[in-house]
Amino acid sequence: MKRISMLLLVLIMQIALAACMSVDDGDISGIIESAVYKIEPIEERRSLKLGVVAGPYGDMFMETILPYLAPKGYTVELVVFDDFVQPNMALSNNEVDLNMFQHYRYLNSFKIEHDLELSAIAEIPTVSMGVFSLRYRTLEDIADNAAVAIPDDATNLARALRVLETAGVVTIDPQIDKSRATVTDLTRNQKNLRFTLIPANELVSELPGFDLAVINGNFAFAGGLDIAGALYNEVLLEGYVNIIAVRTEDLARQFVQDILDVIHSDDFRDAIADDSSSFSGFQRPSHFSR
Questions:
Q1: Domain of 219: which CATH number?
Q2: Same domain, 199 and 270
């Protein structure tokens, strides 16, 4: 019996060896391999970097939003950029966690042009674009052939022309999309204004060299111009109220929800509306009235 058992064992081993040798080395269809994949939990951020440009919005975040985030353990570092291009590129490249400097139409145009996955999460109180002059006190004082400086980027160029149209100084061709208007689309230029296109962040410093300039509110504010002293202040249309932007992939993160909770709170509304606040005169987003 012992010998028979040994023969059977040898036979079984030979059959197994033959079976293994008959399988092609590249054929793993018969191999079932179990694997355990460890999914790392999302690491919630408490140390945030906020991208801004010169203007009031960094101060707005630090004075009216951060005080309600800090008790939850948040800290915020301001990263200040000197043009409208860098903050979105920095956000896309993970150099900052959010930015707060632009209106929705600019963000939408920029992200399409540069193929970026960025999203707006909330509108914020916004200082509007204005017509400023060191030489004139009213629009009626503007002389013929006055030299006018306006932003050179397409979005704010069109916006500046619409501000001048609303102020009654020029007329844009009604047959075109006014969000894409350029100086060649003016059908009427009552004062024969002479336009020069200049980067938006340089308009305050260039103002002394022109009869007037149409300047984004944040740069006017940062440059020390009297917002209330503008010849005309824009009433912001839908899409031109400033927003906070994040990477689209971060929309579900806790820091986004915590910021939204503050933005929609009575505490935030009260901080903005306070007469002593630097932001009390800003145009307020529609959700403030809800």
A1: 3.40.190.10
A2: no
